[in-house]
Amino acid sequence: MTRVAEARRQHRDRCANPWYVDFAMPPTRLFCFGFGYSAEALAHHPSAREIPLAGTRTSFAQPPLLRGVQPAKFQGETPSAEVRALLQGATHILVSIPPDLEGDVVLRYFRDDLGGMPDLAWIGYLSTVGVYGDWHGEWVDETSVCQPVSERSLMRLKAERAWLEFGTDTGKRVELFRLSGIYGPGRSSVIDNLRAGTARRIVKSGQVFNRIHVDDIARVLAAAMDKDAMHRIYNVSDDEPAPSQDVVAYAAELLGLPVPPEVPFAEAGLHGMAASFWAESKRVRNDRIKRDLGVSLLYPTYREGLRAIAVT
User: Fold this and answer.
1) The pLDDT of residue 47
2) Which of 77, 241, 254, 305 has the largest count of CB atoms under 10 Å?
3) Distance CA 89, CA 86 (A)
4) How many Cα atoms are found within 13 Å in the side-chain-facing hemisphere of 148?
5) Which is nearest to 177 in space by CA: 122, 138, 139?
6) Measured between alpha carbons, how far is residue 113 from residues 38, 79, 116 in Å?
7) Residue 35 and residue 55 in contact, taking contact as beta carbons nearer than 8 Å
8) pLDDT, tens digit, for every residue of 195-234?
9) Dist CA 278 CA 282 (whole Å)
10) Among candidates 124, 73, 120, which has minimal Cα distance to 96?
11) Residue 65: which residues within 8 A CB-CB, separation 6 or more?
């Protein structure tokens, strides 16, 4: 057993004692590389409301950060003294900035900083289930072979491997979170398009997708920060992979709007990112977040999630 693993085991054993108080553990401080939609949901989670938060944005012209969050500008082009200053004392790091063609920008500019932070207990990297590629509707879990199809997913897989290597080299706890399609308040194209009268029910035989509500992402991240379940990869997904046309039909009925007619995929005229999204079909298992992190999803299927969004 390595010294790092032994230290983790001893800490878990001590914390199992209800009378134990670890006065040597520093107070939690969270820094988010890319303080966007998922990071804001985590900041709203009850476990994160009382801890110091800081994070980066590419521009201060974006919507303002939550009150109390210390901001830093980082566009992924050069190292930032402002970021380095806010990193001091961080115990937890969340990375949601996507990689570029050269790799992961956070590791490129801040690898040595992160490796030398004595209080850093956890790094969470937000990735995508796209790294699994096309499984023709079959089930995948965290042990499935990754066979990405799109360039974006290939870059994500490369970044995942770089972060895992960093964790091995430095002894830092690094965990990957492979997210399904994210939706939630203010980000539900199905409901928005139905209300705008532009929704289409595209049908492709055998095609299914998983989704994940942003509040459930926050629940998973909060649980992972609090508990080392000794895994390094987690699928963050809902319970029910479903065809897109079923989701659109359910949302239309929920809103009391006409259900759009079906459009065969071959006639949909999709290009670019939209076409690549439909090039893959898989069913994503999420047993690990439930069994080992103890997460209970607020929105286990698209139905619960869309109902919550529809009333806002």
Assistant:
1) 79
2) 305
3) 8
4) 17
5) 122
6) 24, 11, 5
7) yes
8) 999 999 999 999 999 999 999 999 999 999 998 888 999 9
9) 11
10) 124
11) 35, 55, 57, 71
> Per this entry, what is the length of the chain?
312
Helices (H) and strands (E) in the chain, counts: 11, 13
For 226, residues 6+ apart whose C-beta sits below 8 A from its C-beta are 47
The C-alpha atoms of residue 23 and residue 257 are separated, in whole angstroms, by 58
**AA identity, residue 222:** A
Q: How far apart are CA 94 and CA 39, in angstroms?
A: 8
pTM for this entry = 0.89
- Would you tell me how many other CB atoms lie within 10 Å of the CB of residue 82? 14
Q: Are residues 174 and 164 in contact, defined by beta-carbon separation less than 8 angstroms? A: yes
Secondary structure class of 145 (helix, strand, coil): coil
Of all residues in the chain, what percent carry a pLDDT higher than 90? 76
Letter string b/e over residues 190-202, b meaning 16 or more CB atoms within 10 A of that residue's CB: bbeebeeeebebb
Residue listed under structure tokens 């706890």 = 173
34: left (phi over 0), alpha (psi -120 to 50) or beta: left
> Each residue of 148-186: b (16+ CB within 10 Å) or e?
bebebbbbbbbbbebbbebbeebebbbbbbbbbbbbbee
Q: How far apart (Å, rounded) are the C-alpha atoms in residues 279 and 274?
A: 9
